[in-house]
Amino acid sequence: MTLPMRRRPGPFAEPLADFDTFFDRMSRMLESAPSPSAGELPWAPLADLHETDDAYIVTVELPGVAADDIDVALADRELTVTAAYGEREETGVLRRGTRRTGRCEYRTLLPTEVRGDDITAGLSDGVLRVTVPKAKTATPRHIEITTGE
Fold this sequence. Notes:
flat, mainly beta, Immunoglobulin-like, 1 helix, single chain, 11% helix, 3-stranded antiparallel beta sheet
């Protein structure tokens, strides 16, 4: 007859103990981090980035935002679009609100050098379209080899 054997505690006795420890540490770290109050952090609007042969085209959905409330900036190769959604004043009691308000921000790092002076932006039907022309790259040229004669 075989008797049950008592296992000795060892490093493999609790395979998930390391995960529990990790999650406990992460929870404590996140709880100790300063939490911003509601509305301080910008949220990201829906956006697309397309590349053509000579430009990058960024389209950002900003329904209900006036052109005066939108800012487009380029620093080095980082394009930033910020906008402010204001709260609409309505009469009566708000029973349910799901529309976002506050500041939104879209950032993207463009893969190549661009011509910052030639950027165009237009707003139509709540969609912002930013066209960023690419910089002209050096064209390869043939170099003739001469002999020492």
